[in-house]
Design brief:
Radius of gyration: 23 Å
Number of domains: 2
Distance between the termini: 34 Å
Order of helices and strands: HHHHHHHHHEHEEHHH
Number of helices: 13
Number of strands: 3
Shape: globular
Amino acid sequence: MKTSLHKENSIQNLLDEDDDPMYYLNKLSVDREEVIQMANDLNQQAIERMRALHFAEALPLFRKAIEQDPSSWGNWYMAGQCCRFTNDLHNAVTYLKKAMALKSDEPPVLLALGIALQLTNCFTEAIDAFRQAIQIDPDYVLAYNSLALTQKKQGALELALHNYDEGVRALTRQIVKSLQNDPANQIFKHLHIEHYLWFEYAMYGATYLCSMSSEHIEKMAFPTGQEAMEEECTERHEGLYWVDYLDPENKLTRLFLPNYFNTFREMFGQDSTYSELIGNRGTVLEELGRDEEANLHYEEAECFFSISNRHSGGVTY
């Protein structure tokens, strides 16, 4: 069996922006009342230590801030994250449950709680937390990843396989919603795109993009050959992802230009999220005995891991 860089790895264990202990930084209020200024001061001191990843030093400060202002869900959340990253999982669950009680509609809180519960083998509760996060934000990629990993640990491999796929679809929706129909967009070089897993998700993304862009679109089309090349090279359509036109029956068609796929591929590789998800999905396929499919997933994970390294290295395309 092929060994992958991503085998038995999970993005839920990385410090990234969706499950970052610094998440609350963007939630801090600038209009706090004077009576809780001391809690704010403690909060700021704790955050500085968290920026340096000194979680054990930050935790006592968050605890003092909680004593001063127990109504601040953010301090409970940050204290829970400090406990989790210092492997004090019991207290992590306690603090994060309190954060959730104060702010039950915050997906990162539910994600953090779910991960802490999963790490204590409370799989059913963890799954509930992940599903709540997804219900609030259907495109919350990390929640799908953690849900699938938990189901894998439970032995529910088919469910895990499904939810890793749902995670990639959520990532796809995030990408296509960020596409800008702008003539200034860069055109990426044409690539051989058939027989790759990402192309299937690109097709899903194209369908989603078409459906979300206009309820009046009758169909979509993908030009090929000389027509596509000529269309792509026109000044009007250079860099566009699509163009709409009326057919003789006055029905609107959305024409996706070839650059959509090339650009989608580059955006899929802008960080390691896709490579991690597809690699994790490969581990489930391997456990199911579907070795050939697993190897395809591992190979694609390694390919996109290389692309993400180029992006992180500041390479210009």
